[in-house]
Amino acid sequence: MQDDRRVRERAHAIWEQEGRPEGREQQHWSQAEQEVGSEGQPPATPPGDTSASLSQAGLNPGDEAAPGTPGTGDGICPECQGTGRVAKGACGNCGGTGIIVQGIAGG
């Protein structure tokens, strides 16, 4: 029962970090189960490598926040000018989508 409480708390934290999106309960719960189940095990990626945490959160390196975060919107990737491609293939900044999530100036 202790693990259920920890999974529930972690899933709630993930939901809040992603801007409280609707309809993602199962993904948040699964991610929380995986994270709680792997506690105490060595990390799968070297310290300082943020690529795994970015992909788990649904982020690309060029994103400033998770999709759906209040105060953000889609923008054109400055690395590929919205094409999703660079000389060596798919753009790593936007994950090949041509779009990044960025903050929107407020008044």
UniProtKB/TrEMBL annotation:
Spell out the protein name for this chain.
Answer: DUF2934 domain-containing protein
Give the matching InterPro entries. DUF2934 (IPR021327), HSP_DnaJ_Cys-rich_dom_sf (IPR036410)
Compositionally biased spans, kind Polar residues: 48-58
* Region of interest (Disordered), ranges: 1-72
Tell me which species this is from.
Answer: Muricoccus pecuniae
Basic and acidic residues bias located where? 1-27
